[in-house]
Model the fold of this input.
Amino acid sequence: MSRTLLQDPGLWKEAALIGGQWRTATPHGHSPLINPADGAVLAQLPRCQEAETTEAINAAQAAWGPWRRTPARQRAALLQRWHELITAHREDLATLITLEEGKPLAEARAEVDYANGFVRWFAEEAQRVRGDLIPAGQDSQRLLALRRPVGVCAAITPWNFPAAMVTRKAAPALAAGCTVVVKPASQTPLTALALGELAHRAGLPAGVYNVLTGADTGRIGGVLTRHPAVRKLTFTGSTEVGRLLLRQSADTVKKCSMELGGNAALIVLDDADPDRAVEGILHAKFRNTGQSCIAANRVLVQAPLHDTLARRLAERCRALRVGPGLEPGVQIGPLIDDAAVQRLEALLAEAVAGGATVLAGGRRHALGGRFFEPTVVAGVRPDMQLAREEVFGPVLPLLRFEQDDEAIALANDTEFGLAAYLFSRDAARIWRTAEALETGMVGVNTGLISNEVAPFGGVKQSGLGREGSHLGMAEYLETQYVCWDGLAPAA
Ligand SMILES: NC(=O)C1=CN([C@@H]2O[C@H](COP(=O)(O)OP(=O)(O)OC[C@H]3O[C@@H](n4cnc5c(N)ncnc54)[C@H](OP(=O)(O)O)[C@@H]3O)[C@@H](O)[C@H]2O)C=CC1
Ligand SMILES: O=C(O)CCCC(=O)O
Done:
C-alpha cells in the first residue's frame, strides 16, 4: 500500500474537499489513479460532476464574505502557518508527487520548496495590498481607488507540477481575500488534497479551499466556467484547452489568467561558455523528464560550437540514470502516460524519416512501461513536428544556425511565446537578442528561471497574465473607484 510510505498517513486523501468536508463518495462512482512508474492503481478518487462542482462553488461563495473581511494580517498569519506545515511535511508531499507524477524524489522535494515559496511570498504580499488617493479636480472631492478581492476563483491545474501549480494560484487568491475551487489534473490529485488537509490544519476556514476530484473533467469544467458566482478562472495547461475554457468563460465575462503551451528556443551563440551552455541545456531540457511548458523545446546552436556541444550533450544524456522516481539516484522518471510515450515515438520517427540523426537514446527504455531514453537528435529542421510541437519529454532536438538574426527569426517563428533561453558572454549581443525574443520570459546563461519572486507567464498564444511576483497578486484583485464628493471647503 503506497499510503504506508507516508510518515503521516492523514495526508493521504481519497476524497474531494467541499466546504470543509471530505467527500469519500459521490453518486457517480470512482476514478482510478495510476502510478506512472509501474502502472499500478494508487488510489480511487470519487467522481465529482455538475452537482458536486456547484456545491463547491456555493461553499466557496459562502466562505468568501467572512474571508474577505478577515484582516490582511490574520489572513497572512494563516498562510504563514500553512507554509510551516508544508515545510514540516515536505517529505510526505514529495513522496506523493513522485508517486502520482513520476518525477525523481529529489526533484519532487525541490518542487515542494518551490510550491511553498509561493505560500510564503503571498503571505507576505497579503499585507501590502494598497489602493490610491487620486488628486481630484475639485476641492470638494476625494477620489479613491480601492483594491478588492475578485471573488470565488476556479483554479484548473496540470499534472506536471502537482504542488507548485496549485499554490502559485491558490496562495495569491487566498492572500487577496478570494476563495478557491481547485480542479487538479485527474492524474495528480493527491498532492492538491494533501495541501487541503494542511490548509485545514493551519486553520483556514471551511470552504476557503475546495478540491474537486475524478475524471469527469468536461462536466466539472463546464460548471466552473459557466457559473456566475465564479468571478475568476486561472488555468495552466495546453493552449487547446485554454482556448476552450476562455470560450466557455465568455458568457459570464470572467477575469481569466492563462498559462498555456510553449515552444521554448534555447539559443547558444558562438561566444558562449560551452560548459555553462551544456549544464543550462540539461537543466532546461530534462527538468521533470522534459515535461514542462518552459522546457527547452528546440536547441539552436551557432555553427562553430554545434558539433562540440552535440557530442558533449550526447555523452551526458547517455549517462543520465533512468528509473522509478523513488529509487535513489534516479534523474529521469517515467512519462505521465502511454500516450506520451507514443507521441514521442511518432515525433522522432517523423524527424528521422526527414533526415535527422539520433545521437543518443531514441527509443523506449529497456525498463519498459512509460520510460523513455534521454535522447539527442541533430539535424532537426524548423518545419519538423519535433521543432513545432511541444515535445513534453526527454528528447532534445538540435538545430544549427549561422547568423544571430537567423536564430531570432527561428525562435520567434511559432504561435507560442512563453520562454526562451540564451547563452553568450557578450553583453551587447545578449541585450539585442533578448529584446528581440517574443516571449514572456528569457533565461540568460541559465536553464532554470522559475521562482516565486519572478513574474511567470507568456505572450502570444502562451497565455494571459502573470503568476508569482508582486504582479501575481494583482490577478486576484479588482479596482473599485470611489468618488467622494460634498466635502465642505476648508475654513
Ligand atoms: N501541463 C502544462 O503545463 C502544459 C501542458 N501542455 C501540453 O498539453 C498536453 C497535455 O497536458 P496537460 O497538462 O494534461 O494539459 P491539459 O490542458 O489537457 O490539462 C490541464 C488541466 O486542464 C484540465 N482540463 C482538460 N480539459 C478540460 C475541460 N474541458 N474543462 C476543464 N478542465 C479541463 C485537465 O483535467 P484532466 O487532468 O482531468 O484532464 C487538467 O486539470 C501536454 O502533453 C503538453 O504537450 C502545454 C502547456 C503546458
Ligand atoms: O506549465 C508548466 O509546465 C509548469 C510550470 C513550470 C514552472 O513553474 O517552472
Observations:
- The domain at 264-444 is CATH 3.40.309.10 (Aldehyde Dehydrogenase; Chain A, domain 2).
- The radius of gyration is 24 Å.
